[in-house]
Amino acid sequence: MAKFIQTHPEGTEAHRVMTLMVYTGAARVDAVQLGPWNIKEGRFQYRRQKTKKSNGRLISIPVHPDLAAVLAKLPSDRPYISTRRGTARTAAGLGNLMQRWTREADLPACSSHGLRKACARRLAEAGATTNQIASVTGHKSLALVQHYTAAAEREGLADSAFEKLLARPNGEQNLANLPDWFANSDTKPLTGKEK
Asked: Which of 21, 46, 96, 176 has its CA 20 to 30 A from that of 61?
């Protein structure tokens, strides 16, 4: 994100869109509809378009202070992601803009969907559970959230596993029977295929 922000600093439309999407985890189709009317009592509240047929999954998340600072500078009579005329951008139009902005920042592999994943990963790195992340992103399937956050969770799990190992009495010194761990209990010699 640093490279994106360096190319598209605060005050640009690209910066506003990136900030909105990374702090809400909103899908592109939802992000283009968000506006001041979605903030109630300091929380973003909206229904996911993807689940519209089943009345839409309600998302209700706190407004992050960094996002609040960006949104406070915007007009209150139009969507946060709007055209110069003040009308909502389409999801496809936003996708095209993101492609242009990421190319300009020399990040051609990045996308608006990548910002949704970045939100999930940042939450995982901060210690949020899969259910907590799904309540922010609105995913129905926890499997997809786990897919997004797997790398962050693996690193954290590895750290906590080693903390447990190091917390043992005498740390790693407590391995008195180490040679037995590697002893071959099979008395049959290996044949050519097994070697």
From this structure: 96
Joined tokens for residue 144: 């997809």
Secondary structure (3-state) at 45: strand
- Kindly state the helix (H) or strand (E) to which residue 60 belongs, with its residue range: strand 58-62
Q: Determine the Cα–Cα distance for residues 12 and 18; give it in Å rounded to an integer.
A: 10
**Residues with Cβ < 8 Å from 111, sequence gap 6 or more?**
95, 98, 99, 102
pTM of the complete model beyond 0.85: no
Tell which residue, 148, 160, 99, 141, has the closest CA to residue 122.
148
Question: What is the rounded distance in angstroms from the CA atom of residue 136 to the CA atom of residue 16?
Answer: 19
Q: What share of the chain is helix, strand, coil (3-state, %, to 5)?
A: 55, 5, 40
Rg (CA), the chain: 24
Contact 22, 2 (CB under 8 A): no
Which pair of structure tokens corresponds to residue 176? 């008195």
